[in-house]
Structure formats: C-alpha cells, structure tokens
Amino acid sequence: MDLSKPSQENVEYMIEGIKSKLKMASAAAMQASAFSVDHYEDILDIYEVAMGSDRLSISQVEALVSELGRLRNK
User: Fold this and answer.
1) Is 41 left (phi over 0), alpha (psi -120 to 50) or beta?
2) What gap in Å lies between CA 22 and CA 32, rounded to an integer?
3) Do 67 and 46 touch, CB atoms closer than 8 A?
4) Residue 28 confidence (pLDDT) above 60
5) Total domain count, the chain
6) CA dist 38 to 11, 18, 41, 44, 45, Å?
7) What was the pLDDT predicted at 29?
8) Is the pLDDT of residue 70 over 80?
9) Of 7, 8, 53, the residue nearest 64 (C-alpha)
10) Contact criterion met (CB below 8 Å) for 26 and 58
11) Is residue 38 part of a domain?
12) pTM for the complete prediction?
C-alpha cells in the first residue's frame, strides 16, 4: 500500500491498522469511513506512531484514541 498519496482508501487502511494495533475495545464504534482525506497527514502521523511501536502504554493509547476522536467527521 502506497501511503504517500492521500486517498480515502489509504485513510481507511490506516484507521483499520490503528484499530487493530491498539486492540480497541470500541473499535466497532470507530468506522474508517468516518474519517476524511482532509486529515490525511494527521492520520498518517498517528498510524506511524501506532505501527512503529512494539508496545504502547495506556497513556499513549488514550492519547492516540483521543486524537482520532478529534479527527473524526462529526
């Protein structure tokens, strides 16, 4: 997957990867389609942090989830 080009498909791919990595209990509530390409760079940053770490602390997971919530379309 080429994540260097913003697209809705890439946004959805990254959101699904983040949800899987964070093992989110409420993952079903966070639909990938609820995120816009307008926030592509921010989502890519979150994706890289989530995927670049073997283990995330609870506070890191909370911060990432909070940031995703901020980026989600209302």
Assistant:
1) alpha
2) 14
3) yes
4) no
5) 1
6) 10, 18, 8, 12, 14
7) 61
8) yes
9) 53
10) no
11) yes
12) 0.75
Band of residue 69 on the pLDDT scale cut at 50, 70, 90: confident
Quick one: which of 12, 9, 15, 13 has its CA closest to 27? 15
| Reduced 3-state DSSP string for the chain | CCCCCCCHHHHHHHHHHHHHHHCCCCHHHCCHHHCCHHHHHHHHHHHHHHHCCCCCCHHHHHHHHHHHHHHCCC
Task: Write the pLDDT tens digit of every residue in 8-18.
Answer: 999 999 988 88
- Within-domain flag for 2: no
Rounded to the nearest 10 degrees, the angle between the axes of helix 8-22 and helix 40-51 is 30
Q: What is the mean pLDDT of the chain?
A: 86
Domain of residue 18 covers 8-71
Q: Is residue 3 part of a domain?
A: no
| % of the chain at pLDDT higher than 70 | 91
